[in-house]
Amino acid sequence: MPINSLTRDKIYREAQLDQLPATCKSTKHLTPLDEIVGQERAQQAVEFAMSMKDKGYNIYAIGRNGLGKRTMVMRYLNRYQPNGKTRYDWCYVVNFEEARNPKVLKLPLGEGVKFKKVIEKLMQRLSKALPLAFDNEVYYNRAEKLKANLAQKQEQALAQITAEGAANNISLSISAQGSYELVAMNGEEPHTEDTFLALKKSEQTALEDNITALESKLREVVRKFTTWEETYSEKQQRHDEEVAEDVLSHLIEPLKKQYAELNDVKKHLVAMHKDILDNLDIFLEQNEEQVALSYASLEKKMPRRYQINVLVSQQDDIPIVVEESPNYHNIFGYIENATYKGTIFSDFSLIRSGSLHKANGGVLMIDAIKVLEQPYVWDGLKRALRSRKLSLSSLEREVTLSGTISLDPEPIPLDVKIILFGDYQTYQLLQHYDPEFKELFRVTADFEDVMARTPESELHYAQFISSIVHGNKMLHCDRGAIKRIIEFSSRQADDQNKLSLHSADIANLLRESNYVARSLKANMIRTSHVNQALANHEQRVCRLKDNVMQSFVNGTTLLNTQGKVVGQINALSVIATSDHQFGAPSRITATTAYGDGAVFDIERKVELAGSLHSKGVMILTAYLSTIFGQTDNIPLATHITFEQNYGGVDGDSASMAELCAIMSAFAKVPLRQDIAITGSMNQFGAAQPIGGVNEKIEGFFDVCEIQGRCATQGVIIPKSNVQNLMLRQDIVDAVAKGQFNIWAVEHVSEALSLLTDHDVGERDFEFEDYPEHSLFAKAEIRLNKLREHKKQQALK
Q1: What pTM did the predictor assign?
Q2: Helices (H) and strands (E) in the chain — how many of each?
Q3: Alpha-carbon distance 696 to 703, whole Å?
């Protein structure tokens, strides 16, 4: 039965846009799509994870780059309304009892900055009010009275000592160093050594005894001075505190009432109240150096210890944070150091937030590979998710980056959903090597690469195109351009009945088409502009393809596209670079010699063949044995190879071509060189689908163009690959005009019939001969002659 070449409608499916109203002439009149099409499974996974409040329901989003994973998640989250979830502002404040352990303040949403401003205003008022309270006559009079009382008591005590000494010719004086001295007097003048020695012994002894007794009393008085001065200092301190208390009570008590329902804030205000009383010199500027350091700030001019470090201040919407550079400090925050007059210091006001702080109560989205590339980040994330706490000092303690004593801030409670974006290979690695991964990331959002191509999905795709055009303020696309982009999407999906969900490819094509249209002063993107953009892209990435095709032009790669040759066939392969793939034909040859039926794969012998190619050769060997080795061994050894192959070869897509070359060599029947073939086969000879079918056909077509076209040329593909055909327009036109052929076969025997212009032949019964003049009959006749020869040789 003859096999007909495929018609135009089979090798390219045009977009119809049946669901698009006829009045809609361009994307200008087409409502943009507000969601990602074809990702219902992934969206349901995200919705489920966001609804689960339990620990561990974080998300790993699987899919290649360009699928719109982040866009879909962002669009969903922008509409997501968390039920019953309370979010807070988080602040760090000084711990007045232990400055090394800053405390956390939790405030209602949006109150953090307000509280910071309230404290700043309080400090401004205190810095003015406190000095004024200590700079008035009432304060000075009371302070002077206390000081006068002390001086009076000291003078009375000294006067008593002075009077007692004067009665005994002893004078009390104060030395230049400020110490008290008792001196024996000779009238109005102190005794000299000579005058003292001139006294009687009894007088000397009496003076010495009196001085000793007075010294004892003087020491007692000096001790009392110390006690009196301490009492004075305490009274003065109480006086200062009473004065300051009047000011503080007036200013701080209203704040305590204002924040009475926030227990932590109220406690902080109480502790601040007490600390200000203990550190009045900060406001009264009694110690300039201490005050200077106290005010040293990177921000506003106010005492550092009373600042409010607002780490996170959130808005009403759920926080959604995308961290592009997930190193440790960017994720978990860090503590800065400041320098003042050569002194390096750090305190709670230098604590800086990380992405986890900003996303607390919401969602943090990060790239899985970037996380795994950064030291300590993955372990830190797991630790935070397990403990549901966010600590700032874990890295310093873990790796001992500094020998200095660092701050150890109080941890912040953590309530966050983390979405990791990554590919399937990274997902498998984490599943296999990290047992905690499946406990912490229990939800997998698996993004599709393609979706079914239906009239409805074409409409959604057109709306998706419209959303890109509107979002990027491009020129609008007419219906023809929309159709061409949808057809391009099918080509990207390698399936007439599918559409690619790689939104990045579509967005890039639209940008480039918009550039072409604008450069041509067009007012709209049309089909020609899309085609030109595709051609421009092809030109940018096709250097390797041009080099390969040049080898066919100058004849360095040997290939026939006309005529017939025994044991020689044109196979098709795909060459891929990082951003481009193309097809190129290659010659497979098969030779036979007297042997035991083995098929020697030269590529495998020289280790140029991969395991899949070797498997394909073994399968075709099994098929040959089924056809010709039912009753006796095949007395031929076959050698097959890819000619001029100096790299590797893998895959089984050439197994049908290899079998055809071997059958030609067996039967000594030539194969048509104007036909190329691709496709794998099973042990029963059935044609199996292969990849890259469009590129393979286009590669052979281009070589035919180089060497000279004729109407008989064409390509044989498996019938199951017909649905994958979305060929170039020049090939579609050539097929439509009967100038190029594409045959789809279900069995290798159909391919043999096309290539040899012979019926292959089929047995009715197992031991019956093949029909006369059939291909298999010719092969079997030759094999039988060899078998008979072998028997005769054995008899000799």
Answers
A1: 0.77
A2: 29, 30
A3: 11
